[in-house]
Every structure is written in structure tokens, then in C-alpha cells.
Automatic annotation (TrEMBL):
<feature type="active site">
    <location>
        <position position="304"/>
    </location>
</feature>
<dbReference type="InterPro" id="IPR004722">
    <property type="entry name" value="DHOase"/>
</dbReference>
<keyword id="KW-0479">Metal-binding</keyword>
<feature type="binding site">
    <location>
        <position position="59"/>
    </location>
    <ligand>
        <name>Zn(2+) 1</name>
    </ligand>
</feature>
<feature type="binding site">
    <location>
        <position position="151"/>
    </location>
    <ligand>
        <name>Zn(2+) 1</name>
    </ligand>
</feature>
<feature type="binding site">
    <location>
        <position position="231"/>
    </location>
    <ligand>
        <name>Zn(2+) 2</name>
    </ligand>
</feature>
<keyword id="KW-0378">Hydrolase</keyword>
<dbReference type="GO" id="GO:0004151">
    <property type="term" value="F:dihydroorotase activity"/>
</dbReference>
<dbReference type="InterPro" id="IPR050138">
    <property type="entry name" value="DHOase/Allantoinase_Hydrolase"/>
</dbReference>
<feature type="binding site">
    <location>
        <begin position="322"/>
        <end position="323"/>
    </location>
    <ligand>
        <name>substrate</name>
    </ligand>
</feature>
<feature type="binding site">
    <location>
        <position position="308"/>
    </location>
    <ligand>
        <name>substrate</name>
    </ligand>
</feature>
<feature type="binding site">
    <location>
        <position position="304"/>
    </location>
    <ligand>
        <name>Zn(2+) 1</name>
    </ligand>
</feature>
<dbReference type="InterPro" id="IPR011059">
    <property type="entry name" value="Metal-dep_hydrolase_composite"/>
</dbReference>
<comment type="pathway">
    <text>Pyrimidine metabolism; UMP biosynthesis via de novo pathway; (S)-dihydroorotate from bicarbonate: step 3/3.</text>
</comment>
<keyword id="KW-0862">Zinc</keyword>
<dbReference type="InterPro" id="IPR024403">
    <property type="entry name" value="DHOase_cat"/>
</dbReference>
<keyword id="KW-0665">Pyrimidine biosynthesis</keyword>
Length: 438
């Protein structure tokens, strides 16, 4: 299978041709057109070529909640969003806390064949926060787990967190923390502030996140390990991460598209589409998260794609599940909020949505390498984006099994046109290719 991407914009350089064959980038520039032979030609005029996007934070719901998402449906949504790899969170049923479950998820991803699905292993057995899960067995399994998280739950016991941080050092792993002090957020429904007071909904204070972030960067420093802060949502968390990095602490941090774009004002309609964990915060927090992403304090954009069924979402606010879908809109949100506003270049987008997440997840080398530069000899994981295309989000047309996107009717600038996984198109002309298997 050969594809010639004609006249695409490589990051920071002149437009050029890129030839993909046998799963790798075989030629760039004049060589590419010369060697193209019978390759299928794609007109890349006006398109930006990015290394295939990598999500460190996807909920695929399989095993257990296949009515909300499966590995196959989530893989299709990911490909449409420009992703070639996603990390699947462990809060499934059963929980991904054993080698058996993570191997199952890995294999389902390979069978679906649209993206590489890298399973995240749970930190604690059953996400209960009491006893360390079999981290070593998951790391040594066929799934080669390197990212460990109880996401959805906070590892709140400092002794357990310390042990996890110490343990993952043996195999160069990372603990990805969902920073939420449980006592400070008991019964909480939305950000604690003026809007929660006016709506009469129980508030979720910023300090509930910040106190855990502060503790964990100090623990990471103490044991000399890596910690990754998931979905940073407050200005104070950005400040703490900035402080920790200045001290040389091995902390990385994530922003979600929704914390870059939406505020707690959206709760005023009591529409549970805007109910998410951590909650949407204030305009000042959104600005701090954007500034943190722009200055490198925040390393990556992770979707926190959290699909939920209509039954779990289409109900009164207090009863609804936390979470929103994100795979199919992430690039458009980042493009609209950060690139169109001049705060990130497309090279920055490649960094925060591909290169750095691949490095943090330790999937930047080996036979399933992602986040590699677009260079001769590298795996042909490529995403083509039209940076000026304007489009309106229509969740009813999403490939995800679930419909709980907060962006229905929103107009975005910047759209994924094609995605290639090891040289094989998974998306062309903005639509899924028919072929389902490698
Ligand atoms: N981010 C979310 O709002 N939801 C996540 C887990 C979580 O509660 O963090 C989910 O799995 O649905």
C-alpha cells in the first residue's frame, strides 16, 4: 500500500510531497514524487501534516459498558479525531488491574485495527485505593503497560501513592493522578463559586484539586519518580505545576479540550452535558490553563473522552454521570482556542497532542511507535488537517456509541481530513475508510 501526500505543509517548512509505503515514510520532497510509481495520490494543498495524534486519556468502556462504547467504536471515533494511538483508562468493569484485563484490551484494539490501544493499568485493586494492583505483571504483560492510574478516583492515601511512585520506577512507568481530595468533594456537583451558590448545587472547591497536586509533586520529588497530573482545571494547579517544574521535579500535566474552552456558566441551564469531573471552572481558570499550555507548563492535551449512555446522561443534573465525549472534537477545539488565536503553532500542536504524550506514555519507540517526527524511515503515522476548514459539530453523526458531546451546534475552525496508521488510511476525506482490519 503506497500513498503520495502531495504538497502538504510539513511543520515550519515549505510545502512538500511525502511518500508512505509498507508502513513507513519512505521519501520526502523530490524523491517522493520520483519514487511514487503507482501510489494513490492525495492532494494535500492547504493541509498540515502532523504526526498521528496520541491521547493519554480515553475511556473506552470495554469490558463492562459496551452500551456506552466499545474498543472498536472508540477506535473509530479516535481515528476520525486524527488519533493513531489512545491510552484506555482502567475504570472498566472488571477494572483493568490485572495482566489478563490489560491484555484483553490491547488485543481488542489490535483486532479493531484503527488505532493502537494502549491500556492504562489501575494503581489499586478495583480502584478502591487500598491495595496496590499487580503493576509489575501488567508492565511485563503483552500490553506492556507504562501508565498507571485510578482515574475517576483519586489515589488519596499518601502511603499508597508513595508506594506506586516507587514501584513504577522499576519499569520506567508513570503514575497519572486524578487529583481530587475526596472529603472536600463529597456530594459535589460543580465548581464551587458564584454559579454553584446561585444554582444551589453542591460546590467542588479548587483547593480539592490543588491540595492533591501539591502533595503529589512533593511525593514525586521525595521518591525521585515521575507523576503526571490529569485534567488540570484550576489556575492554582497550573501555578503549582509551574513551581514544581522550576524545581526540577519530574511532573507532567494535561489539559482537556473542555477545560480550555468551557466555563461553569454552562451549568446555568442544568444541562448534564456540561457535568464533568473535574468540573468546568471560571473564565480565569480557563485563561490560566490556556496560558499554561502555551508556555509549556502543561505538557499535553488529553481528551478525557468519557462516553455515557442516554440513560446515564439524559436525566436531572444531580443524577447524571460525570463526563463528556471528546475524541472527535479535540483537534478542532485546540485549533479554534489555541491556534486560531495565535497562542500555539501547528508545531506546538504536534508536540502537545502527539510527541509529548507518546513520550510520557513510553510509546515513542518499538514496533508500535508513535509521536515520531515526519522523517524518512519513521513509521507512517500521519494526520492531515485542514487548518482553515470551518465546520459545525453534530454529535448525532459521531462514530462514538455515545452522544454526550457538549459541543453540538458549535462552529469550529480546523478539521481532520485524513489519518494514516502505519501507512494504512483509517480516515480519508474526513470519513472512515471501509477496511476494518490491518
Ligand atoms: N471525567 C469524567 O467526568 N468522567 C470519567 C471519570 C471521572 O469521573 O473522572 C468517566 O469515566 O466517565
Amino acid at each position: 500500500m503506497r500513498h503520495l501526500l502531495r504538497g502538504v505543509a510539513p511543520l515550519g517548512g515549505e510545502r512538500t510531497d511525502v511518500l508512505l509505503a509498507d508502513g513507513v515514510i519512505v521519501a520526502i520532497g523530490a524523491d517522493a514524487s520520483r519514487e511514487a510509481g503507482s501510489a494513490t495520490v492525495l492532494d494535500g494543498d492547504g493541509l498540515v501534516a502532523l504526526p498521528g495524534l496520541v491521547d493519554l486519556h480515553t475511556h473506552l468502556r470495554e469490558p463492562g459498558r459496551e452500551d456506552a462504547e466499545t474498543v472498536a467504536s472508540g477506535s473509530r471515533a479516535a481515528a476520525l479525531g486524527g488519533y493513531t494511538a489512545v491510552h484506555a483508562m482502567a475504570n472498566t468493569s472488571p477494572v483493568a488491574d490485572t495482566a489478563g484485563v490489560v491484555e484483553q484490551v490491547w488485543r481488542l484494539g489490535q483486532d479493531a485495527g484503527r488505532v493502537d490501544v494502549f491500556p492504562v493499568g489501575a494503581v489499586s485493586v478495583g480502584l478502591r485505593g487500598e491495595q496496590l494492583a499487580e503493576l509489575g505483571a501488567m508492565a511485563q504483560s503483552a500490553a506492556r503497560v507504562r501508565v498507571f492510574s485510578d482515574d475517576g478516583m483519586c489515589v488519596h492515601d499518601p502511603v499508597l501513592m508513595r508506594r506506586a511512585l516507587e514501584y513504577v520506577k522499576a519499569f520506567d512507568g508513570v503514575v497519572a493522578q486524578h487529583a481530587q481530595e475526596p472529603r472536600l468533594t463529597q456530594g459535589a456537583q460543580m465548581h464551587e463559586g458564584i454559579v454553584s451558590a446561585e444554582l444551589g448545587l453542591a460546590g467542588w472547591p479548587a483547593v480539592a484539586e490543588e491540595s492533591i497536586v501539591a502533595r503529589d509533586v512533593l511525593l514525586a520529588q521525595h521518591v525521585g519518580s515521575r507523576v503526571h497530573v490529569l485534567h488540570v482545571s484550576t489556575a492554582g494547579s497550573v501555578e503549582i505545576v509551574r513551581w514544581a517544574k522550576a524545581r526540577g521535579i519530574a511532573v507532567t500535566a494535561e489539559a482537556t479540550p473542555h477545560h480550555l474552552s468551557l466555563t461553569d456558566e454552562r451549568a446555568r441551564g442544568y444541562d448534564p452535558l456540561f457535568k464533568v469531573n473535574p468540573p468546568l471552572r471560571t473564565a480565569e481558570d480557563v485563561e490560566a490553563v490556556r496560558a499554561g499550555l502555551a508556555d509549556g507548563t502543561i505538557d499535553v492535551v488529553g481528551t478525557d473522552h468519557a462516553p455515557h449512555t442516554r440513560e446515564d446522561k439524559d436525566c436531572e443534573w444531580a443524577a447524571a454521570a460525570f463526563g463528556m465525549t471528546g475524541l472527535e472534537t479535540a483537534l478542532g477545539i485546540v485549533s479554534t482556542t489555541m491556534v486560531a488565536t495565535g497562542r500555539l503553532t501547528w508545531a506546538d500542536v504536534a508536540r502537545v497532542m502527539s510527541t509529548t504524550p507518546a513520550r510520557i506514555g513510553r510509546v515513542a519507540s518499538g514496533p508500535h511507535a508513535h509521536g515520531r517526527p515526519l522523517a524518512v524511515g519513521e513509521p507512517a503515522n500521519v494526520t492531515l488537517v485542514d487548518p482553515t476548514a470551518r465546520w459545525t459539530v453534530d454529535p448525532s453523526r459521531h462514530a462514538s456509541t455515545s452522544r454526550n458531546s457538549p459541543y453540538g451546534g458549535t462552529e469550529l475552525t480546523g478539521r481532520v481530513i485524513a489519518t494514516f496508521l502505519r501507512g494504512r488510511p483509517t480516515v480519508l476525506d474526513g470519513a472512515l475508510t471501509e477496511e476494518e482490519h490491518a
